[in-house]
Design brief:
This protein is mainly alpha-helical. The chain contains twelve helices and no strands. It starts with 7 loop residues before the first helix and ends with a helix.
Length: 221
């Protein structure tokens, strides 16, 4: 497929339409506290938000303010039993307990509003840090998951060969500044509910008429 080029004007139009399509898009990981969001995002790697919500729901119902202290008291084995149905549960349980201990020892149980400090925590990489900083502290950051990566590449905002870091950098340049705090959620919802991996719902898409991938596909028929 030829390299897709997209004009600044068309790029702006894309995000204006996404803003209108997904005005109520938000993080779908259920949480009551900063710690709970950090924990949920860590657990969501290579699994669905629904699976994480289902696993954590009993804990959060029993303890609505389930904290790092509660996780430490619970222990790795019991926490593993609670999340065993999600992907990579043994590793995630181990990292979660280590993360909770560091929060208590170094940060008074508080989730740091700082990328470097977040990425020092076990199980926290760039994507997790971006989600936490964006959702909890309103940083203008874009966390690139499978949905964001797919949509960005289909729209020609990043090359098909780009790494996730390169996709993030490309989006940070392409997205108008006024949209940077919210665009992460729009892209996720768009990829999750319309621009899905198999059989994307192009006929229902609000940007089908200016989507470079769809235009290229149509012209090749």
């Amino acid at each position: 497929m030829p390299k897709i080029k997209i004009s600044k004007q068309k790029c702006t139009e894309i995000f204006e339409r996404l803003a209108k399509t997904w005005p109520h898009a938000k993080c779908e990981l259920v949480h009551n506290t900063h710690f709970q969001l950090l924990l949920a995002v860590m657990l969501s790697a290579q699994t669905t938000d629904k699976s994480v919500n289902k696993a954590l729901e009993p804990l959060f119902i029993k303890k609505p303010h389930f904290s790092s202290k509660d996780l430490i008291k619970m222990g790795e084995d019991k926490f593993y039993e609670a999340i065993r149905q999600i992907g990579l549960a043994p590793t995630k349980a181990k990292n979660a307990l280590a993360m909770a201990k560091i929060l208590e020892e170094k940060h008074g149980g508080m989730v740091p509003n700082d990328r470097d400090l977040l990425e020092e925590l076990p199980g926290v990489g760039r994507k997790t840090a971006n989600v936490v900083l964006n959702v909890l502290f309103q940083h203008p950051l874009i966390a690139v998951d499978t949905h964001v990566e797919r949509v960005a590449k289909r729209l020609g905002l990043a090359s098909s060969e780009a790494s996730r870091l390169e996709v993030e950098e490309a989006l940070m340049k392409a997205v108008p500044e006024k949209y940077l705090v919210d665009v992460h959620h729009w892209l996720i919802f768009h990829g999750r509910y319309l621009c899905i991996a198999r059989k994307p719902r192009c006929l229902d898409c609000p940007i089908q008429d200016i989507c470079p991938k769809r235009l290229l596909t149509s012209s090749s028929r």
